[in-house]
What we know:
72% of the residues lie in helices and 3% in strands. It has 13 helices and two strands, in the order ααααααααααααββα. α4 runs parallel beside α9. The chain is elongated. It starts with a helix and ends in a 10-residue tail after the last helix.
Amino acid sequence: MSASAAGQMPVMEKPVSESNTMPKRMALICFLSLVMLMSILGNLLVMVAVCKDRQLRKIKTNYFIVSLAFADLLVSVLVMPFGAIELVHQHWIYGETFCLVRTSLDVLLTTASILHLCCIALDRYYAICCQPLVYRNKMTPMRVTLMIGGCWCIPTFISFLPIMQGWNSIGIDHVIEQRRNMEGSNSTSCVFMVNKPYALTCSVVAFYIPLVLMVLAYQRIYITARAHALQISMLQRAGGASSSAPGTSGLVAAPDSADHQRNHRMRTETKAAKTLCIIMGCFCLCWAPFFVTNVVDPFIDYTVPDKLWAACLWLGYINSMLNPILYAFLNKSFRRAFLIILCCGRKRYRRPSILGTGAACTTTQINGSTHVLKYTVLHNGLHAELEKKSLHSDIESHESCL
C-alpha cells in the first residue's frame, strides 16, 4: 500500500507542475518567436528596399544601414534561435564546440551591429555639421568601405580569437566547473563566463566607446539643426520685412507670419529632439543593462542570477528588431520603397519627379530620419542667393523633402 502510494506521488505531482509551467513556457515561446520574426522581416525589407530603389543607393548613409540590417539579420538567424531553444529547454543540446562557436557569433554580430550604429552617427555628423565639401572628402566610397569593413573586422578580435583560444576563462576555470556542476550531471549547459580583463576590454570596445561617440555626434547634430532652424527663421523675418517695406513689388507679409515661423521652428526643434532621444534612448535601454552587468559580474564573484543575465541579453537582441524601425522606417524615402515592395509596385507610391515645381526646402537627415526645414522663396537677390546656397549644402538629402 505504501509502496504503491509512494510510486504514485511523482505521477500525481508531475501534471500539477507541468500545468503551472506550461502557460509560462508558451508565453515565452510566443514572445521569442515574435522578436525573431519581426527582426528577420524588418531587416530583410530594409535590404530589399535599397537593392530595388536606385535613389536609395545614391545616399552613402544607406550603405551603413544595409550593412547594419545584414548584421541584425544574422543575429536573428544564427544567434537568437539557439538562445531561444536553450532558454525554453533550460539546457544545451549541441555540444561544447558549437557552444563556443555560437558564443563567438553572438559577440561578433552584436558588436558589429553596435559599431554600425556608431558609424551612422559619425556619417550624419560629417554630413550635417561640416561643410558639403568636407563631407564629400571625408565620406569617399573607399572610406565608407573601410568603415564598414572595420565594423566587421574589429569584433573578430574580441569574439572568435579570444573565445576559441580560451582567453576569457583564464583564472576562472574553477568557477566555470562549479557552474557546470550546478546545472546537474544529467544535462549539458552552454556556460560562458569571462574574467575581469576580458569583461572590461570587450565592454569598452563593443559599447562604451561607441556610446561616447554617438552621444557627442548627436549632441552636435541637434545643436546644428537648431542653429539651422534659427537662421531660416531669421531669413523669413527679413524677407517679410523687406517685402512689406515701401518701394517693394507689393508683396505684403501675412499678419500671423512671425507667429507661424516661430511655431514651425519650435516644431522642427521638438521633432529633432524627440528623434534623437528615441534613437539614443532605445540604444541605451537595450544594451546598457547587459554591458553594465557584464562589467559588474566578475567583480562581485559572479553572483548575478541567470534569469537576470537572460533578460539583459534578450533586451540587447531586441535592439536588432528596433534598428530597422529607427533607421529606416522613420525615413520617408524608405517608407515609400517599403510601400512599393509590399503593395507590388503600385504607381501611387512611386517617387515623384524632382524636376517638378514645389516649395524650396533644405533637409537635415538624422540617422535616416529627415527633419525638413521649409521656408518660402524670398524675392530679393540676397535672399535668393542664400536660398540657393542652402539648397546645395545637402545635395545627398534633397530627395527626402516632404
